[in-house]
Each structure stands twice: as C-alpha cells, then as structure tokens.
Amino acid sequence: MSIADLADPPVPAAADPSPAAPAPGGTVVESGGGGAGVPAVDVVVPVYNEEADLGPSVRRLHAYLSTTFPFTWRITVADNASTDATPAVAMSLAEELPGVRVVRLEEKGRGRALRTVWSASDATVLAYMDVDLSTDLDALLPLVAPLLSGHSDVAIGSRLAPSARVVRGPKREVISRAYNTLLRVALRVRFSDAQCGFKAVRADRARALLPLVRDTGWFFDTELLVLAERAGLRIHEVPVDWVDDPDSRVDIVSTALADLRGVARLARDLATGRLPVGRLRAEFRRPPAGDSFAGQALRFAVVGIASTVAYLALYVLLRSVLPAVPANALALLITALANTAANRRFTFEVAGRDGAVRHHLHGLALFAAGLALSSGALTALHLADPTPSSALEIGVLVAANAVTTALRFVAMRWWVFAPAGRPAPLEDPR
Which of 165-179, 239-253, 286-300, 334-348 has the lowest mean pLDDT? Predict the structure, then answer.
C-alpha cells in the first residue's frame, strides 16, 4: 500500500499559501498564484551554499507533496547566509513552484534558520528535512500524522531504530551511536536519534520551547528534544530509510566538539534550574519525562529511607520531652518538608522556584494524611497497651510510615505531577 492509499477519498494536496508575515531577521519571497489559506504542514529546508542540489531536491519534494501527501502544505527554503548562487536558485523556485517560499537570513546556523522560520510560521505542524533528502520521503506522513491527530507533540526520524534501514560509512555510524549513547548517559534521554535531519513539532509546542533553545547550530535539535522530553511532551519516533550523502559538507570534528560543549552547557542549565522545565510541565500539564517509573521509584525509595531514618531519630529525641502523639507530629512535619524538597529536586527533577509553593502545599496535604495514619496507629496501640515499649512504638511507626511512603509516591506521581489528557487534535486548515 502506498501513502496515497491512506487518503480515501484522495485529498487535494495543492497548497498555494496566503502570504505569511516576514520571519524575524529574514526576508520572505512568496510563491506566485492564489492563496489556499494556512497550511497544515510547513516543511522547512535549511540550506547553505547548496546551489547544485537545491533545485533538484525541492522539485522532487514538491512533486511528492503535490501527488502523494494528503494534507495541505508549504515548502519554505531557509537560506542562511549562502555566498554562492543558492539565493537566486531559491527565488527562482519560489516563482516557479506553487506552495514554495524563501526566507533569507544574513547569519549562518541551521538552528538559527529553523528558529526564525518556525517562530513566524502560521502552519499547525512545523517540519524540516535536510536538503539532500537522505531520508525516504515516504516517512513524512508517518512523521506528521501523530502530531495532526493529537497523539504526539514532537516527531523524529530515527536511523537507530531496529527497523530503520541505513546506508552510511562506519565512521559516521560509530560517531552517531557514540553521541546518542553519551546523551543517554549524561542527560538520561530516552529518544534514540537526536540528529537525524527529519523532524516535526506541533506549532503550539514550538512556541513554548523555541525561546528557551540557545544553540543556533547543529546542537539545536538535541537541545530542543531534551527540553521537550523534560517538559513531559510525547516524542514519536519513526524508523526511516536513510542513505548518507557522500557530498556532505558537515565538519565532523568541529560539529562533535560543539555538540560536547552543548551537552555540558545543557546539563549545567538543567542542574542549576536555569531552564524552567517545571513551569513547562505545569503549562503542558505533563508528568516528568526525564526518567522511567522504575528510576523515579528507586530515587523516591532512597529519599524515603533517608527521611525515615531522620524521622525516627527526631521522634526518639522529641519523645524524651514530649508525649508520643505530639512528638510524632513534630518529627513528621519537619521530615515531610525536607522530603518534599528532596523528591522535588531529585526524584521528579524539578529545579528552580517554579511551582515550589504549590508542591510544598501538596506536600503538607500528604503530611496531614501521613500524620492521621501514624497518629491513628499510635492511638490504637496505646488503647490496646497503655504502656507499650519504645521498640513496639517504633515498630508501629515504621509500618505506618511504610504505607504512608507508598501512598506518597503514588500521590506525587499522579497528583502533584499529574499527567494531562491527550492533546487536542490539530485540524487541517483547508
């Protein structure tokens, strides 16, 4: 079955877009012809000195979208400071082909080009692909369909997925796998391929993420994906058929060094709370996405053990001067505040002040529930035995605290950091 068979009846794909606002820092040259409204998908092709490949690639992409793609579309050539004939070729294509426009930037940087065009685009889904079209175009519909349906927020082509078919040299293969392994170790990411030049994002999500992305070069993709994942957005991966361009002009050594600097900066920004991922999660109503359930449970257990030891030590200290129930309440209050702060920072990876008051108020509510449970257990013990031993009191408190800890984890994961419902589908604005 071809992609065209998925659209029944066939949907007209011609997209002669109405003039869009000029992108900040760039010049826009629109295609001729009448407008067909806002496109569903804006496919951006960033270029730098690609006078030979640009024409054939854009014509091939245009033919594919015109005959096969079932949603309205636009092609935007983002020329970032080319010094050869690329600008002239791009303008000629915009004048020749309906649905093609050009954005000219005076500074280099793929990340800068994507940020500029995506920030100003009126499309509902923003995509990009490398000008060499190394990725099979049949992967475009599986890439953008989950975003238009509301199933996902970001979509990436993956050359490292088990079912991907990739043709490239061993040097690039080793570098790619080493880089993505570094990301999994250093930043605990879960996506498999950070830098395949074939990605898409919902425009509403991009508007929230783009102002926080600092890189303007090749690390732009990685930074955007890490932010999206930490913000709890759903990242959809599409295994792709990919053939390496032997004429690629990417300087592997300088790009790799820049990426390593980017990883170090991003890790520092996440650790210090410079990046407001907590605010983004609240805005998107998403749970933390930086780790698995098992990872969060393990860190929660470590914090819980430390809190329990501190709680019991405080209880024993306070019990020498206070009755059992007040001593329990004060020890529980102090350790509950510390527990919330520790879990907020280490278990759920929320740094900075965003949402801190709300999280601690929720923590106090959980403290009240824990206090009720442990105080009830102590009261029941003293009713059964008016003079229980200290060991028996502590044993009862340990059991009550274990139940409270389990309930606390459930509440923090599904209440304090509650997941949202499925995002609303994006309509194809014909």
Answer: 286-300
Are 255 and 311 part of one and the same domain? no
In a domain, 339, yes or no: yes
Beta bridge partners of 158: 239
Q: What's the domain range around 218? A: 3-284
CATH number, domain of 53, equals 3.90.550.10
> For 167-204, what is each residue's pLDDT tens digit?
888 888 888 889 888 898 888 888 999 989 999 999 99
Catalytic residue among 221, 259, 269, 354: 221
Cβ density class 308-341: b for 16+ within 10 Å, e for less = beebbebbeebbeeeebeebbbebbbbbbebbbe
Instruction: Say whether both 333 and 248 belong to one domain.
Output: no
Give Rg (Cα) of the chain: 27
Question: Would you say the C-alpha torsion 243, 249, 253, 257 has a positive or negative sign?
Answer: negative
In a domain, 74, yes or no: yes
> At how many degrees (to 10) do helices 252-272 and 170-186 cross?
10
Q: Determine whether 251 is an active site residue.
A: no
Per-residue pLDDT tens for 210-225? Answer: 999 999 998 999 999 9
Question: Do 169 and 276 sit in the same domain of this protein?
Answer: yes
Q: Give the torsion through C-alpha atoms of 16, 204, 148, 121, to 10 deg.
A: 20
- The model scores a pTM over 0.70: no
Tally of structural domains, the chain? 2
- The reply to whether 430 falls in a domain is no
Cα 234 to the center of its chain, rounded Å: 7
